[in-house]
Amino acid sequence: MKTIFKYIRPKLASMSAQMFIKFLGTVVELLLPWMLSVILDEIVPAGKRDMIWLWGALMALCSVIALAANAIANSWACSISKDIIINVRHDLFVRITGLSARQEDYFTTPSLISRLSSDTYNLHQMIDRMQRLGVRAPILMLGGIVITFNLEPVLTAVLFSTLPLLAIVIVLVSRFGVKMYMQAQALLDALVHSAQEGMAGIRVIQALSKTDYEVNKFDKANREVIQKEIKTETLMNITNPTISFLLNAGLTAVIVAGAFRVNDGVTKPGMIIAFLSYFTIILNALMMVTRLFIMYSRGAASANRIAEVLDSSIEMEAQPIEAGDSINRDDVHIRFENVTFSYNKVRNNLTNINFSLKRGETLGVIGPTGSGKSTLLNLVLRFYDPDSGCVYINGRNIKNIPHGLLHNMFGVVFQSDFLFAGEISENIGFGRELGENKLADAANIAQADFVFDSKDGFAAQIASKGSNISGGQKQRLLLARALAAAPEIILLDDSSSALDYKTDAKIREQLAKRFTTSTKIIIAQRISAIRDADHIIVLEDGCVIGGGRHDELIESCESYRDIAKIQMG
Amino acid sequence: MPRQPMSGGPGGRGSFERPNAKTSFLLKRLSVYFIAYKWRLLLAITLSLGGNALALLGPRLSGYAIDAIEPGLGKVDFDTVFHYAWLMIIFYLASSMLNYVMSLVMIRLSRNIVYQMRKDIHGRLMRLPIKFFDTHSIGNVLSVLSYDIDTIAASLSNDIVQMLSSVITVVGSFVMMLSISPLLLLIFSITIPAFILFTKYRSNRVRKLYRARSEKLGLLNGYSEEMTGGIKTIRAYNREKYFIDRFQARNVDASQANYEAESFSSVTGPSVNFINNLSLALISVFGAFFYMSGGIGLGSVSSFVLYSRKFSGPINEFSNFIGELQSALAAAERVFRLLDEPAEPDDAPNADTLTSVKGHVALRNVSFHYAPDSPILKEIDLEAHPGQIIAIVGPTGAGKTTIINLLMRFYDKTSGSIRIDGKEISLLKRASLRSSFSMVLQDTWLFSGTIYDNLAYGKEGITREDVYNAAKTVQMDGYINSLPKGYDTVLQDGGASISKGQKQLLTIARAVLLDAPMLILDEATSDVDTRTELQIQAAMLSLMRGRTCFVIAHRLSTIKNADAIAVLRDGRICEIGTHEELLAKNGYYRELYYAQFDDSVTIA
């Protein structure tokens, strides 16, 4: 909550003003039962009919004031919580985009998504309701108690005696209830997840006629969730009947005590009537407080999950150049020097990698799945820092290159890279102001003819994840994106696996012809994709087991020769 | 009997907008779920009736007690006071207990309905044609399954319980007040119509605003999900700022829509309180006059005030209820829309079962399109004799995968005929058709479960030994055994922890286990590295031996041995023949084939 409070603080002034208005409105409302008792105990016995009208009018006026104050305060509260949540969401998204790859692995993408959507929603609800009910409920409760105390201290003491019991019930039930509620929620999440999986695999399920099996599996999980929910609700629902019984018992006690007081002449019957009204108010307020309590604990859990991301330390900042660091002014563009890296710090994913590329050269990387090819790209992009050794670009250790500068150098296509819902032009342009010509040019180079063939051209809509186009079309759009800004460095990770050879060959031809000054690192499964590269490295288990040009490798590297043999027939 | 929760008491009747055709239709459909539990519902209503009736007697009893106190100083009738005090305690206790029991009944009832709805939706989902999943976002469907059903559940379990008791409270209070003073009751003839007008005026607007809110919030959440998934790419291109700006625009939009809906509806509470307070003022004034003129006792005024609070208290809840009912109805609408999605049509009434398949497959003049103006496949003729390997090649988007979809009847062809062993597939039972194929796709699918379960998926009555052998044939046995838990290793998130190539190997092993008479390989080894592919070549060959196979592959070297290669272009077969025949033809295939070795293409 501390982190979230930073967002609330700037709003404290308007919040206080809003709460003050709310306070006024609520207090005015609280006066009404007292006014009734004045009418019954003071004015009626005195027989002043005019005064009844006057007090009646006063009550009506109070009602109007209460309406105005509460209405204004409520919508003001909505506006305040809106401003707060906009900022929280914004900063959370900013922080998420700035997380280091390691932090992202730690949080996991689905969890980040749920923090960004459902947690901010819960937090919003909480801030909103806390402002609206958070003032009203305690004031109604405390105000009710204060007024009754002033009216009749002894009767109030009778009322108080039920409060500790109430508190115990509320605390016990919410403590266990909230825990059970979380468990139920976790089961529900698992249920939804399994449904999601089923939908992703629907082709397989239907092909294997496993529909009934899946339905039964879901049914079992569904039943489990329901059982847990029933248990939770059974407990949670004890609260209301108990509260209402305890308060009504208190109310009965007030009448009995009142009877003695009236008999002794220390109080009047009208007072008891007012008292009973306040009792109802306090009872309702108490119910509101219980609800607030649950809402708060749910909101606070969300707030903590949000704060966890917001408070995560900023990693992978560019480091200032130290005296010992020399800038190498040779013509090498990208250099790996004894680079070793491991994701889990147990087993190396890359071991002692060395290569250097001059501007405009191409490096081909080939090797089995899991041999560390993609990891190599992650290091060039500085998503991770090597455990030992260095990566240099233009002679500078990339640790010293500010993120903005470094990442403006690249055109990248990752394995199963991302396309988003929007126009084709947006997907290729990717927020860079490139102009129509460059987009069209890039689409041409990437052989994305279908863009020109389609009715809407570059304005055609792509669905989320590119689900409305084929795998080959996706790869061509991604390639167009990578090439559109004529980047200094082009990184392609298996970017043509869904393309047929002919298209692939045309793209390679274009790449060679048009991007003579761009340095390229191309990861591929097919030898044809890299056979003309200036350097090829063959990776296995994170180690380079062969390096050189195609002809050299055919001679020197057995593994490479095997691959070539079956691929080229 | 299922009853509409909103009908009843004078406070409630007419205070909702007249249900329009759609609303009443939705309620009718929702009520189907209730009918199954009509007895429990009846029990809940009875309990609620009892509990609230007992609670309603409270103020009356307290009124009698106050009447006994009224004579004042030294004249209080303590016997009467105690008598009524005891009655109050007993009645309140009984009422609380009845209410709790009722809530238990209602919880079970509503949870059972949720259970049933989830089951219905999921059951329907699993039986929807593939087309549905190709055209709908999974995220939206999931939100129906979780969020929408939950909304309905919340509305059922909370609101209906409250409404039940509220309705009884309102009716009971009304009767009580009527018995105390019909004249004072006239006050409500001013305030209640005011309230009805108020809610009527508001509910339409509220509904619209809340609909806009859900829509905007949906957009924002969709965007969050999408962008968080692509964060790596965004970072690699240094485009954080651009996407943050776009996120912010949606953020502001959604927050604004939320503000408009919430702020509009946040005025409802104070307005309802205002009407209550005004009622109290009027009761005070007129109650005082009646008291002065001796028409009514002080205890009665007290009871009346308490009843009036009880009477108008639920009105506040009614207006909350409108909002919640409306979002529940909107949710129900989405639930039913999903339930109404046409499932795969049933098998033809006298559909044949495909047994002891030989594997003769013949496509005659097959065409397919989603929309008539954009045909996907045009007049395809293709024949596979038992045990033959048919390769389908062609540029992306030529319709290769569509042929597979038609074979498996994931989609039904638009015209033409597809026969297996001479039987038209549209006249076959789907399950028997599909189970005669093993299928390995480029998009592998593994579920969260053990490796063993994933491999054995789809085949009943196999031994662990069979599973181990299948894993061995695809060279995965060693890797699996190197994992701490071996075959019982749980794959999380569809095998996020293993590589794409390994996933493909596992799905190939699954196909090996299935042992179906025909085989479909759609880019089955695209992510398997070449060396491993070489190692499993023998396994693949033995998998294919004796089976009719349909193979789609980009690596033309893998299909050189096919009995026939069909070259697809723009939805038509433009060439067909063996590898040698096609090469000799000097056509499109030759072009494709040599493109992969083209030495004239140089890099850098």
Q: Sheet with the most strands of chain B?
A: 6 strands, mixed
Helical content of chain B stands at 55-70%
Total domains of chain B: 2
**Number of discrete helical segments of chain A:** 20
Q: Using DSSP, what is the number of strands of chain B?
A: 12
For the record, the CATH architecture of the largest domain in chain B stands as Up-down Bundle
- Report the helical percentage of chain A: 55-70%
The secondary structure category of chain A is: alpha/beta
% residues in beta strands of chain A: 5-15%
- How much beta of chain B, percentage-wise? 5-15%
Shape of chain B: elongated
Biggest pleated sheet of chain A: 6 strands, mixed
Radius of gyration of chain B: 36 Å
Assembly type:
heterodimer
- Low-confidence region ranges of chain A: none
Number of strands of chain A: 12
Helix and strand composition category of chain B = alpha/beta
Please tell me the overall pLDDT of chain B: 82
- CATH-level-4 superfamily name of the largest domain in chain B: ABC transporter type 1, transmembrane domain
In short:
The complex is a heterodimer of chains A (569) and B (604). Chain A is 65% helix and 11% strand.
Which structural traits does this protein have?
heterodimer, A: 569 residues, 65% helix, B: ABC transporter transmembrane region fold, Rossmann fold, disordered N terminus
Protein described:
The complex is a heterodimer of chains A (569) and B (604). Chain A has helices at 2-8, 12-46, 49-98, 101-107, 109-151, 153-160, 163-200, 202-207, 211-236, 239-263, 269-310, 373-380, 403-407, 424-429, 435-445, 449-453, 471-484, 501-514, 550-556, 558-568, and strands at residues 332-341, 350-358, 362-366, 388-393, 396-397, 410-413, 422-423, 461-462, 489-493, 519-523, 535-540, 543-548. Chain A is α/β, with parallel strands linked by helices and 569 residues long. In chain A, the strands form three sheets. Chain A has a six-stranded mixed β-sheet, sandwiched between helices. In chain A, strands 2-1-4-5 form a four-stranded antiparallel β-sheet, covered by helices on one side. In chain A, helix 2 (12-46) packs antiparallel against helix 3, helix 3 packs antiparallel against helix 5 and helix 6 packs antiparallel against helix 10. The longest helix of chain A has 50 residues, at 49-98. The two termini of chain A are 65 Å apart. Chain B has 604 residues and is of the alpha/beta class. Chain B has two domains: 25-339, Up-down Bundle (ABC transporter transmembrane region fold); 348-436 and 559-604, Rossmann fold. Chain B has helices at residues 21-35, 38-69, 78-126, 130-135, 138-180, 182-185, 188-229, 231-236, 240-265, 268-292, 298-339, 400-407, 430-434, 451-456, 464-473, 477-482, 500-514, 530-535, 537-544, 579-585, 588-595; strands at residues 361-369, 375-384, 389-393, 415-420, 423-424, 437-440, 449-450, 490-491, 518-522, 548-552, 564-569, 572-577. In chain B, the strands form three sheets. Chain B has a six-stranded mixed β-sheet with strand order 6-9-10-3-11-12, with helices on both faces. A four-stranded antiparallel β-sheet of chain B has the order 2-1-4-5, with helices on one face. In chain B, a hairpin with a 5-residue loop joins strand 1 and strand 2 (375-384). The longest helix of chain B is centred in the N-terminal third of the chain and has 49 residues, at 78-126. Chain B is elongated, with a radius of gyration of 36 Å. The relative contact order of chain B is 0.08. Residues 1-19 and 598-604 of chain B have low confidence and may be disordered. The interface between A and B is large, with 182 and 172 residues.
